[in-house]
Each structure stands twice: as structure tokens, then as C-alpha cells.
Amino acid sequence: MLVVKTLVYLFVVKKIVQRYRYSLILLKQLVKTDFKLRYQGSILGYVWSLLRPLALFVILYIVFVRFLKFGGDIPNFPIYLLMGIVLWNFFAEVTTGSIASIVSRGDLIRKLNFPKYVLVLAGSFSALINLFLNSIVIAAFMIFSGIELRSAALLLPIFILELFVFALAIGFFLSAAFVRYRDVNYIWEVVMQGAFYATPIIYPLSLIPFDAAKLLMLNPVAQIMQDIRYIMVTPETMTINDFYGTHLIRLFPISVAVILVIVSALYFRSRSKHFAEEV
Fold first, then answer.
1. Which of 77, 123, 187, 238 has a CB 3.0–4.6 Å from the CB of 71, allowing a cystine?
2. Does residue 231 register a pLDDT over 90?
């Protein structure tokens, strides 16, 4: 029975690879090109992918930890803060970078017939590479700070996948909408500015009123960020369970992400037929 299941699994995987072979090859090339062009002409090159979050971390650490005394009740708060910054930058890079992914490849879209979703995926996977590089920096800080990993750290890939899917769903919707409505870029900038302060990145949830924090935790990004901090930095991190007292509440942010994936996929698919005419 096990042999039969294995053969069926291999057959299904082979069919999927064959069906999307062209898309996978194109995706690979676009990711490599996007990552190379991103730092082309700069002196430090790929090092900027590490320096940018570190520079922001230093600024926020001096202002909010040294001067405003945030996070005194949270163990390893500097790592806690750095983790939030890196995760937020990843979310921002996927969503903001996706907006012009279709329009910027207008010449390519008009000349060739290929799956348009690959263009959005390419930039998103580049952001995923940056997240991996930044994770190395975080790991170095954790080792230096003497933080011991717990078995719960095995859940990290699941939360990263949840954040990636949620950000990618937003990216697909924004990229399709931007083809027709060029105001999307400016609107999303404002949304991201507000969302940065509405997400517990630079401040612990204990500093804001309980009812407000309870509402904020329904945001999938906040839920994921706090869960990752909980399993990686300190178990004293407040998660969505601390506010609602039940694991079932986790279904809400997950449901939001799933609904957004469905809506974005349908919207992108319906709009992609007109991309060549409108870009």
C-alpha cells in the first residue's frame, strides 16, 4: 500500500511539474534578474539587504528603548524589536514591490504570451531571499544574546508561510488594480504608514489599552509577528490567545487570509485578460 501511495504521489508531482514547467523556468530567471538588478550599481551591493533593517533597528532602538524606555518588561527586547522590523520589512517589500510588477513589464506582456502571475511571484520570491539573509543576522544576535531555541521554533516555517501567503494575496490584488487605477500606489503608501503604527513592531502590547490591543491582534500580520516572537525570542510575548483565551480565535486571521487569497486570485485572473491592452 505504501509503495502504491508513493507512486501515485510521484505521478502527481511529475504532472504538476510538467504542467507548470514553463512558468517555473520563467520564474527562476525573473527572480535571478530582479535580485541582481536591485543592487546593481551600488558599492555595497547585496550587503544593503542586511544594512537597511539594521540601520532602522539602531534608530528605533535608540529612540524607543534608550530614550522612551519601551520594552523594559520583555526579555531580550532588542531581538524582539529586530524580529518585528525584519518581518514588517518583508511584508512591506512583498506588497509594495508587487504593485508595479505588471506595469513595469508592459513591453514583455505585449510581446509574449505567458502566465502573468509569474511577474508578481518573482518580486515576492526576491523578498523571501532577503528575509532569509536577514534571518542570518537575527540568528547571530540570538546566539550572541544567549537565547536558547525551544521545540516550538519548529513552527517557524508555518508562520512564515502564513505571512508570505497573506502578503502575496495583497500583492496580487494591488498589482492587478494598479494596471487600471494608478492611484493605488499612493493609497497603499498611506495605508502602510498607518499599519506600521497599528502593528506592535516598536512597542509591546502591554503599553496600549487591552481592548485596543485585542482589536489589533485580529490583524494577521500582528498575529503572525507575535507568534514568531513567542516561539523564537521569549514565551512572555503576548499572543492572540492571551487576549481571547481560546485557540479558536486563530481561525479569524487565518480566515481573513484565505478569503483574501480567493478574492485576489479571482480578481487577478479576471483582470489579467486585459493587461496587454492597458499597461
1. 77
2. yes
